Amino acid sequence: MAVERLRPDTAPDDHGAMSSDLTAWAEQFLDEMASPTGRAYIRDALLGDPDGSNAGQCSAYAADQINLILTRAAERGEKTPDVEAVIDGVVAPMMYRILFRPDGLDAAYARRLVAELLGQTGP
User: Fold this and answer.
1) Considering the domain boundaries, does residue 11 fall inside one?
2) What is the total count of domains within the chain?
3) Which of 5, 8, 68, 91 is 20 to 30 Å from the Cα of 41, by its Cα?
């Protein structure tokens, strides 16, 4: 049940550019997952998950959302990273920080991760 609560309700917003789309998605993802409710859902989803199927499903939800953003960007002619690069560069650091080092989890952190992934400098 906790895994289902982590399923996104809607598709990521289309802001017209991959950078804007990924940034908005990352900010929202971080806000939801780092909230007390989000942390409780993560904890509940991972408890009693010896085979990792719950974690795999949660990861698939994020990957599906990222894939949609990247597909839209590619259709606009933008050069895109692959889904795993976004997972490794944006989602994984956020999840680690949410679980083990929750200080400094704000929109600026999410924006910085996306900018670093895309090789951008500045805000």
Assistant:
1) no
2) 1
3) 68
